[in-house]
Design goal:
4-stranded parallel sheet, Rossmann fold, elongated, 12 helices, single chain, 12 strands, 6-stranded parallel sheet, Sugar ABC transporter substrate-binding protein, disordered N terminus, alpha/beta
Length: about 325
């Protein structure tokens, strides 16, 4: 009997000091799943670091699970990650989709189970969402505008009639399409000829292969515009291998750490910063506010614009 009473006293003391959390208290804290594209890309590793730092600073408010695919085109693996998050009974999913259309059915299934979904980085296809009568807020920058900022800066160092090539991301993704359009807007405004657009699938090696091919096919190219900095790293290597460093300008998009020395020494002319560390945080915060207010998916805002800025050698 004395042992039982002592046990009860200890349990009571722990409960008072908050060391013994009840299951109800644990369930009250929402679980957010962050599903990203390739963690081989520094941009998404930075995004994950930013999300983890935010959760650590708000540990009492929510728990976080993060996941990312091995390569940018492994859509099937990302669909499984969404399904896993549903099985784990998360409260919300914040997703940077690998494909703007292919992820929509899995997202619809998650929403049907009462899970809140927020879209970051790469926008889901509007028509595909409409077809499923689905509202998924997009939290992110205007990719077309960001790419135009980069393209406009590049155009200042070129002249009318010059030839350039565009190394595009995964062609089925909205952000790849928008960045290509932004680059094309800038080149058209400056009367510069885009000789081709080819996909480097967001990856260093594929960006390198595409750039090398373009340089062989068009020996008079004056610049290559890469849809992200991972591909830009491959482009810079291709330009060097062709013996054209300083003769063929290279621009990118994302402002990952790896391109900073290249901006400093001129191997790259410019990139765009869309604040990778904050991208997921913006999405997580929108989801947490909606969960706290019990706002249904259908009533979430259609989008929330985030900042994108030009980064050059002189940028701080």
């Amino acid at each position: 009997m004395s042992f039982t009473r002592r046990s009860l006293h200890i349990a009571a003391a722990l409960a008072v000091t908050g060391l013994l959390a009840s299951p109800a208290m644990a369930q009250d804290k929402p679980k957010v799943a962050l599903v990203m594209k390739s963690l081989a890309n520094e941009f998404f590793r930075t995004m994950e670091d930013g999300a983890k730092a935010h959760q650590k600073a708000h540990a009492g408010e929510y728990t976080l699970v993060t996941n990312g695919i091995k390569n940018e085109t492994d859509t099937a693996a990302q669909i499984k990650m969404v399904e896993q998050a549903v099985a784990q009974k998360v409260s919300a999913i914040v997703i940077a989709p690998a494909d703007s259309k292919a992820l929509v059915p899995a997202i619809k299934a998650a929403v049907d189970k009462g899970i809140l979904v927020v879209n970051i980085d790469n926008r889901l296809d509007t028509d595909a969402l409409k077809e499923k009568s689905l509202n998924v807020p997009f939290v992110g920058p205007d990719n077309r505008m960001g790419a135009k900022l980069v393209g406009d800066f590049l155009a200042k160092s070129l002249k009318a009639g010059d030839k350039v090539g565009i190394v595009e991301g995964v062609s089925t993704t909205f952000n790849a399409q928008q960045r290509t359009l932004g680059f094309q807007d800038a080149m058209k405004a400056a009367n510069i000829t885009v000789v081709g657009v080819q996909s480097g699938q967001w990856e260093i090696e594929k960006g390198n292969t595409v750039a090398a091919g373009m340089l062989r096919e068009h020996p008079d190219l004056t610049a290559l515009l890469a849809g992200n900095d991972s591909m830009a790293l491959g482009v810079v290597a291709a330009v060097k291998a062709a013996g054209k460093t300083g003769k063929v300008q290279v621009v990118g998009y994302d402002n990952i750490t790896a391109v900073k020395p290249m901006l400093a020494d001129g191997r790259m002319l410019a990139t765009a910063d869309q604040y990778a560390a904050k991208q997921a945080v913006f999405g997580i915060e929108l989801a947490l506010k909606a969960l706290a207010a019990k706002t249904p998916q259908a009533q979430l805002p259609a989008e929330a614009k985030t900042e994108v800025v030009l980064v050059t050698k002189g940028s701080k």
